[in-house]
């Protein structure tokens, strides 16, 4: 009888932990968005804005698509169970290169720049040309959904490189829950991307507003 009771207790405990951690198994499929949805950001100190106030420079900038240099094309985050163990990945079918480039274009236009798609040019580019390489797009679910986006941006004018710098944005979209919804990961990454692009726009303003 005692042996049966112990076995029953063991089965109950196994069942409990299966329920508690079961939601952490299975990949999440996220759709990348930009700009971040309103109301998804927790207030906190030291958080950068998406971009500076419009500069209204009138400067024309040619934008080439950023290259995705990450090692894992589809993976953008991880899912942890209640014990902090990696149990699944967060993946996307979206193009990271197009996502980042589109966001850069949006923020440049908001800052007052005229953005020209470099892919549409039929003759050699004249004027500032912006391009870049995406290094990191990843979200870690610890106490919050901690997103990180990092890219190297390069600006050339008349064949001369006037700016080359790595920009990194970090942000989060809320406190963690073990269900690990795909939307939470996507929003954290969108906020992190806005943070990184804000620094790029500030550097461009420092160059072109000083002229």
CATH overall fold name? Rossmann fold
Question: Looking at the structure, what is the overall shape?
Answer: elongated
Strand content: 25-35%
Query: Over all CA atoms, what is the radius of gyration?
Result: 22 Å
Mean pLDDT: 81
Overall structural domain count:
1
Number of E strands: 9
What is the level-2 CATH architecture name? 3-Layer(aba) Sandwich
The secondary structure category is alpha/beta
Assign a percent range to the helix content.
25-40%
The sequence of SSEs as H and E is HEEEEEHEEEEH
- How many alpha or pi helices? 3
Describe the structure using short key phrases.
3-stranded mixed sheet, 6-stranded mixed sheet, alpha/beta, Rossmann fold, 211 residues
Protein architecture, described:
With 211 residues, this protein is α/β, with parallel strands linked by helices. Helices cover 30% and strands 32% of the residues. The chain contains three helices and nine strands. The protein has helices spanning 2-22, 96-110, 182-208, and strands at residues 28-29, 60-63, 67-68, 75-80, 86-91, 114-117, 128-141, 144-157, 160-175. A hairpin with a 5-residue loop joins strand 4 (75-80) and strand 5. The termini are far apart. The model is unreliable at 6-23 and 43-52 (pLDDT under 50).
């Amino acid at each position: 009888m005692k042996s049966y009771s112990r076995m029953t207790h063991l089965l109950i405990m196994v069942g409990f932990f299966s329920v508690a951690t079961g939601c952490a198994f299975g990949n999440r499929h996220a759709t990348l968005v930009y700009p971040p949805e309103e109301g998804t950001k927790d207030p906190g100190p030291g958080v950068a804005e998406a971009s500076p106030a419009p500069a209204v420079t009138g400067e024309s900038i040619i934008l080439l698509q950023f290259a995705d240099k990450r090692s894992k094309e589809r993976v953008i985050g991880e899912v942890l169970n209640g014990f902090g163990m990696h149990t699944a990945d967060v993946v996307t079918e979206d193009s990271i290169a197009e996502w980042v480039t589109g966001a850069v274009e949006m923020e440049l236009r908001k800052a007052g720049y005229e953005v020209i798609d470099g892919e549409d040019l039929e003759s050699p580019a004249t004027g500032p040309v912006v391009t870049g390489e995406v290094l990191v797009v990843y979200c870690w679910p610890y106490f919050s959904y901690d997103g990180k986006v990092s890219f190297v941006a390069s600006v050339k004018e008349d064949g001369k490189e006037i700016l080359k710098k790595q920009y990194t944005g970090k942000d989060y979209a809320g406190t963690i829950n073990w269900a690990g919804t795909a939307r939470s990961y996507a929003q954290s990454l969108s906020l992190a991307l806005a943070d990184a692009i804000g620094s790029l726009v500030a550097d461009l303003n420092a160059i072109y507003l000083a002229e």
